[in-house]
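Appendix B, example 12.
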Amino acid sequence: MSQPGGRPGRVTRTAGTAARPEARADVGLRHPFMLGFWVTLGGFVAYWLGGRVLSIGSILILVLVAAFLAAGLNPIVEWLGRRGLGRTWSVLAVILGVVLVVVLFVVALVPVITDQVSSIADNAPGWFDQLQHNRSIQRLDNRYDLLARAKQALSGGNVGSTVFGGVVGVGLKLLSFLGNTFIVIVLTLYFLATLPKIKRSAWRLAPASRRERIAGLGDQIIDNVGAYVSGAFLVALAAGVSSLVFLFVVGLGQYAVALAAVVALLDVIPMIGATLGAVIVTLIGFATDPHTGLYCLVFYVMYQQFENYVIYPRVMSRSVEIPGVLTVIAALVGASLMGVVGALLAIPTAAAILMLVREVFIKAQDER
């Protein structure tokens, strides 16, 4: 500043004009050495965190499966709640129902399925002998020796050792399966009992101005995922029951329960599950009797059309519609990432993402 008389005065730096700490920090970050240090440190931290996430990947898959199962059972809980039953009692009723179904399945069906699977394994070498009389299969077998290898594997009595690595491997696989099943059941029951509290806590993380909108979208996603999961199990149950009745009628009653269980389990898998189940049953039908195989072929071709155009649309009417090409892509990506579990969870996940794109991005673009 200038003093009176025109003499320039000395400029003094006040506290308000002192160099600010954030300015010094910004200058430090612009220095090449400091910038390289922080980038390298961030890369190491990201690599370390990625390794930790991969190390608990199996646990995260179990948590994800339990969350989807809880979403699938939640519509039943809410239906009981609308009938005047409290949340706690509704959850308890659903839990007891699930436990009862599992106990009945283990007590009533597992021994039958075990006996029928053993019968199928005992008869498989004879079926291979019958298939060898087919000229087309004879040409393939002469070139690749497939039937002889499959027959030797089935009749050698060491299928469990080949697949699981011996008795110890079978025991470890069984213990791992039981442990994972117990963890999924416990987590499913916990998610189901505390789902409203979990949702309220999650919505509070959103800004207050957008909390209502985000809560509405989140509730809709959970409802759609629950509708898809429960609907998929209903469709699989319909496939299993119809196969059971048909197999008894067509003369395959000695394998009916085991094959119906296979059809129901495979029908849950998107895209190829129903076809795989139909192929297995049809091949066993042809190996038993050509007329029976033809009946199986006609039945499953007709049933899959009925399922695709009547049962599936009605059951899945509450879930988000997703184009066929996205269904294929989602299932392929999910299967490549997490196998069968990924294929099962891929479609509801893709449907949720598609709904968010429609409700958020496309609406925002339309308003511009």
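Residues 11-17, 157-167 have pLDDT under 50 and may be disordered. Residues 87-131 form the longest helix (45 residues).
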